[in-house]
Amino acid sequence: MSGAALGLEIVFVFFLALFLLHRYGDFKKQHRLVIIATLLAWYLCFLIVFILPLDVSTTIYNRCKLAVNSSPAESNGSYVTLAPSKQKCFKPWSYIPDGIMPIFWRVVYWTSQFLTWILLPFMQSYARSGGFSITGKIKTALIENAIYYGTYLLIFGAFLIYVAVNPNFNLQWNQLQTIGIAAANTWGLFLLVLLLGYGLVEIPRSHWNGAKRGYLLMKTYFKAAKLMTEKADAEENLEDIMEEVRKVSESIKYNHPLRKCVDTILKKCPTEYQERMGRNMDDYEDFDERQNSYPSEKSLAKLHKQVIYSVQRHRRTQVQWQILLEQAFYLEDVAKNESSATRQFVHTFHSQEPENRIIQYFYTPTVEWYWECLLRPWFYRVLAVVLATFSVIVVWSECTFFSTKPVLSLFAVFIQLAEKTYNYIYIEMACFLTIFFLSICVYSTVFRIRVFNYYYLASHHQTDAYSLLFSGMLFCRLTPPLCLNFLGLTHMDATISHKNTQPTAYTSIMGSMRVLSFIADGFYIYYPMLVVILCIATYFSLGTRCLNLLGFQQFMGDSEMTSDLIDEGKELIRREKRKRQRQEEGENRRREWKERYGNRDDSTRSRAVHTDQKESSFSETNASRPLSKYTRSNGKTERDRIELLQDAEPLDFNADSVNDDPLESDSGR
What we know:
This protein is mainly α.
């Protein structure tokens, strides 16, 4: 069992990252390198969060062994040592042998730093580039990141020159490495506290509001009005871009050197636009460079970039609109079923996707009514209270974790109590719940924030490549300072506890922060206290109010604009509901007609066919009798008569005179 826990968590975290990426990304349409890079970034960050509790329990066991093996004469005041006969160390079930964790953390940490500072920014520019070849996209990405990389090189070069000139500094490679890690963690901690302050308040509040049916329905109406505006804007933008593509496609003919670029742009357009442009295009005309002015390859690359963005945005708004409609219909059904006397949940519309039979067997309409109308609100309220309690503990510990005598951080108190009894299961569960809650508060904010239309993580496979790569960058920059902050809250970091104890393997690869004392003793300790101010600002929705004043519509209950958007969204939902009801009624009528008259129509049709066959055979036999009077008996067979009848020309009803009896005309000729 020594390495089984590590192996199981490595496999589990991989499938967790793959599941989340499949929910937000599109494996079929997006580039494989984008999927692989984003998956690797998410996987490494989630892996750090899940493996760190094992590192803590292994470190506590190693400290116990060190305390047992050290004699009382050799021990100092930092160690809590007892006589070997009175103290016994129990090996944890998830113990990781010595030498594995340092190598593991070193590989994971430096790989994530390479991704976030070098590879992912380059791939962002590569993914958004409108070039038509790999060389062109790489060139564009290098040009866009020249300022980005040049700034870091300039700062690092200036620092090296300062250290080389100043004789008071005698830095070695390990110290330079520690300075680089400290600079990256400082940038990450600055952003971490901002996101953490928002998540600590918004997550419990969102679950508390989730128990309010009226609140959720009003917010859904508000979202519908905003999304309809965005949807109309996306459609208008797509129409404008497609018009430009049509003009370019008509101007650049089949034998133009840039026609391949135009064909590449056309492949990115929706199918209906491709068919429309294909019908209106005439490729029989040759191009003449002296008569017409043609766009350059650079302008076509810009148009290609605009097409990719507009098509992605249009598709995303269409999918989100359908999802929002389903959510609004379901919330309206919940509001109607709350007063149901039968206590069975009735849906207005049937699900368009086939449901699992196992779910249908257990999740009956009665069970659904009890869950949605009775149990779910109370469950969300209890969960909100639990999350709010965790948030209060985190805020208190962030403000007091620097105090070691007495220990005021509640997380440190819990870990130290479990350490005395060597209850490794409790230690790992407490560490996992703590760091998992911190991660949820930070990562959920990353998934929720939206920077206009440049960064937006949309579920149901609607996230573009740029946003996926940007989320990977944020995760790789936020996770290391998040873990260091967790170790500080639990006093497992020697920089915080001020004890000469064995550090965790994760802390050992970070190096001693004493090289930069103003960061170790100042910024890392006092800056997290800012989370109190951010929590207060989030509780009173100061950021929402500021955005609302700037013209960005936000959901606020006491705003007149919010009420207008709610009314508009309610009317939109009502209109879509009537439209879908008419469609379902038409389908039901056609289905009932088919079920009621389908068999009868088939039998009637078969009888009619059988009757027609009888009448035709009877008419053929009767017609053959008078026909024999007007034909000579020259030995012709019945087959010849049939061929003659088949070759007869149709009557010309526009002629001057038409004989009533075709046989008389034949005999006359």
